[in-house]
Amino acid sequence: MRQLKEIDIKLTQIKNKTQLIENFKQFYNLTETQLKLLSPQQKRELISLLLREVSYSPRKNEIKIEKNYIPIQINQ
């Protein structure tokens, strides 16, 4: 009985991951064409919405990117 429950949990996790991948594909397909149509100024504005800060440390030769998190819901 325990093994069946574990299998059911794993199956649910696989289904959730599959749905997440499908949602991402839908989002990508919806935005790909629209992103190509943006002007350079609109692209800069979009990047500023997505990124909070970008910094470079020459001593460490490191780039640090702080992201803004924008919740996105895809209606099916």
Describe this structure in words.
This protein is of the alpha+beta class and 76 residues long. It has one domain (2-67). It has two helices and two strands, in the order ααββ. It has a two-stranded antiparallel sheet. The two termini are 35 Å apart. The mean pLDDT is 85.
Helix/sheet category = alpha+beta
Number of helices: 2
Helix fraction?
Answer: 55-70%
Topology order in helix (H) and strand (E) letters: HHEE
Strand order of the largest sheet: 1-2
Mean pLDDT: 85
Give the terminus-to-terminus CA distance: 35 Å
Main sheet overview: 2 strands, antiparallel
Describe the oligomeric state of these chains in a short phrase.
Answer: single chain
Q: Keywords for this structure?
A:
76 residues, alpha+beta, 2 helices, 2 strands
Précis, in short:
This protein is of the alpha+beta class and 76 residues long.
Topology record:
Blueprint: H1 2-36, H2 40-50, E1 51-57, E2 62-67
Antiparallel strand pairs: 1-2
